[in-house]
Amino acid sequence: MDLNSAGIRPSRLQLDRLATGELPEGSLALGPAERAHLEELEALSATLPPVDVAAIRARAVRLNAPANRSLGRWFAGLAAAAVVALAIWPTTPPSTTPIAFRGGATLDARRVGENALVPYHGEGLKPGDPVVFSVHPANHSAVVVLAIDGRGEVSVAWPEAGEDHQTLSNPHAATSLPGSLALDDAAGDELIVAVFGDDLTIEEAKDAISGPLESGGLEAVAAWARAHPDADAVLLRRAP
Amino acid sequence: MAFSDREIQMLYDRYAAVLLHRCRRILRDEALAWDVVHETFARAIVRGDAFRNEASPLTWMYRIGTNLSLNHLRDTTGRGRLLDRRGEELHPGGAEEESASIDHDRVRELLTTADDETRRIVIHTFFDDCTRDEVAHLVGLSVPTVRKRLNAFLDLARATLGASAAAVACLELPWT
User: Fold this and answer.
1) What's B142's domain CATH number?
2) Which of B53, B79, B105 is the last residue of a domain?
3) B133 falls in which pLDDT band (50, 70, 90)?
4) Tens digit of pLDDT for each residue in A63-99?
5) Is B60 left (phi over 0), alpha (psi -120 to 50) or beta?
6) Is residue B41 domain-resident?
């Protein structure tokens, strides 16, 4: 196979660095294919639309701000009561479910009440009702939170796209996860599973739940997570 | 220190074409590619001075853009939309062409099931035509480990597609 394993020609990374001025002119030996690549880039550059600085800034602001996540779709704006409630949510919330007392790493859920966040105990939720989460990592520095819908489809709730895991800055304290989750219009309940580790990847977290998911669905994953010291789960029930 | 509008403009002028070109090749979707480009710029802005101090800003953006692109591929493939859309767009007629496309899509699907490091290794090897040394540097692994991961992926591709189809599909990935 004609791979560039020995560096017999410039890689595209090198060519692109040359095109952007990161490498000086004349620093690479260019053949016809390399010159064609550079010409292609130059032609593309000439056709680019003007930069939308405001749009890029807006994205950057969203990256810095707590995200508002949804299972399947983003909930369009938290209600004012939720914003107030988020602001007054204690950074180290008390344990709210029986599983929180079992030791090991835990996942806690809270829903938006009238004027504050209240512990979530499995009440029926409507699509769009925001639920916020916190984790107690029990000495771990990372978590991957997966959402499994009623059909058994797994999606990544945390970390954000492009990251391997959600980094937890304090492995010894409860940490609020940014944003919120909400049920979408898909049928059935949703199981939210947190898998903790230190050098954890999304794939490893998915591997961890794949056995119980295949053998017994959401119930088996929930049982596995609640019994495992490095995992935990919360079932979001859909209102009838 | 925050990025000024002028700095963002300069970043765009310098890197947008290169990033877009690469993301389009990986994703084969203009809108998704633009989305990754904008997201990568936004992350660079958030990174602030740490980004300014990167020895090679492009290498950093390659890494972020790769992860974002692969996540897009994983998500869209998982929902079964990618093959349908690509099939219609790329091969409106012709069974032979469609068969070749499916091979490439299968390689991409294999990529979405691989672990994160392997995906990055494959992308840098086949899309970026990097040397093993460059790949090792980009993913932070040793050259022997890179070689081992790549061979494991190719074994899987061969087992799934057959030896010749896997070779052709992998080599043609950047151009399809």
Assistant:
1) 1.10.10.10
2) B79
3) confident
4) 765 444 444 433 434 444 444 444 444 433 333 333 3
5) alpha
6) yes
CA B77 to chain centre: 14
Statement: residue A153 has pLDDT above 80: yes
For B64, the closest chain A residue by CA position comes to A162
Whether B72 and B101 map to the same domain: the answer is no
Q: Is there a contact between B128 and A162 if contact means CB atoms under 8 Å apart?
A: no
Residues of B in contact with A63 (CB under 8 A): 42-43, 46
3-state SS assignment for residue B114: coil
Do B101 and B174 have their domain in common? yes
**Does one domain contain both B57 and B104?**
no
- Interface check for A219 against chain B (CB to CB < 8 A): the answer is no
Which tokens is B39 given?
């997201």
Residue of A nearest to B72 (CA): A161
Does ipTM top 0.85? Answer: no
Identity of residue A7: G
Structure tokens belonging to residue B134 = 């460059």
Domain of residue B105, residue span = 97-176
